Amino acid sequence: MPVANTISALAKRIIPCLDIKDGRTVKGTNFVELRDAGDPVELAARYALEGADELVFLDITATVERRKTLADLVKRIAHRINIPFTVGGGIRSVEDVSVLLGSGADKVSINTAAFQNPELIAGIAKAAGSQCVVLAIDTRLEDDGEWYVYLNGGRTKTDAKCFEWAKKAVDLGAGEILLTSMNHDGTKAGFALDITRRLSDALPIPVIASGGGGNMQHFVDVFQDAHADAALAASIFHFKEIAIPDLKQHLKGYGIPVRI
Q1: 53, 96, 138, 221: which is the annotated catalytic residue?
Q2: For 22-36, 38-52, 165-179, 216-230, which range has the lowest pLDDT when averaged over its residues?
Q3: For residue range 37-55, what is the model confidence (pLDDT) as tens digits?
Q4: 19 an active-site residue?
Q5: For the residues 136-151, what does the mean pLDDT come to?
Q6: How many structural domains are present in the chain?
Q7: Is 225 left (phi over 0), alpha (psi -120 to 50) or beta?
Q8: Inside any domain, residue 2
Q9: Residue 259 located in a structural domain
Q10: Three-state DSSP string of the chain
Q11: Is residue 56 included in any domain, yes or no?
Q12: Domain extent for 243
């Protein structure tokens, strides 16, 4: 295999996230206090130009409002980007997935519906391939020292432990884990290195770290210390606190393989 391909295959991914509410990009802290962050179509186009490796679109109130993801908005974004595109929010069936893939999504992110009906993971993997199935886990570290799974956009606590649920999802056919620490979300204080490392080291599929990215060193830490395959962030990119090309050059300086 050529050297370039080897480097590319090992490259760590930088993924901006568009949290969508009422057709606009929003961002909060610890899953609350949402503020407007701009037009999702324009942001998506900007990220594709800046060298983002992928883009994630999460319709954050679709599940709670019991409606489907905004397929028309997905289609408009897909027309403006040339990078892998993951879409989540309100997906409850293989048919929902077909609509989103038909609208331009490359992968789908499932969360609450997958927890309530784990066979949904297997069904989507069978219909579209495991590479299309991103299992999103919203997790919170509780006083007992355990990381628990939360549903419905962080509103509903379960008794399930993050690590056990992730392992089960892999067995069912999930192709990737999007791990969001609710304790760290929006704080810009750094990623949850311990639980990220635990999943990254134990699971045979990629783990995307989410929640807490605030400076370039946080990304170095999550790749070097927690062994994440990708790091996802929102507000630092939306509000131009960190430029993706600058971040990638910084990571490269630490010997972390990235696509420049």
Answers
A1: 138
A2: 22-36
A3: 678 999 999 999 999 999 9
A4: yes
A5: 98
A6: 1
A7: alpha
A8: no
A9: no
A10: CCHHHHHHHHCCEEEEEEEEECCEEEEEECCEEEEEEECHHHHHHHHHHHCCCCEEEEECCCCCCCCCCCHHHHHHHHCCCCCCEEEECCCCCHHHHHHHHHCCCCEEEECHHHHHCCHHHHHHHHHHCHHHEEEEEEEEECCCCCEEEEECCCCEEEEEEHHHHHHHHHHHCCCEEEEEECCCCCCCCCCCHHHHHHHHHHCCCCEEEECCCCCHHHHHHHHHCCCCCEEEECHHHHCCCCCHHHHHHHHHHCCCCCCC
A11: yes
A12: 13-253
* CATH number of the domain residue 95 falls in: 3.20.20.70
The single residue of 19, 59, 185, 229 carrying the catalytic annotation is: 19
The model carries a pTM of 0.91
Q: Is 59 a catalytic residue?
A: no
Query: CA 102 to CA 250: how far, in whole Å?
Result: 37
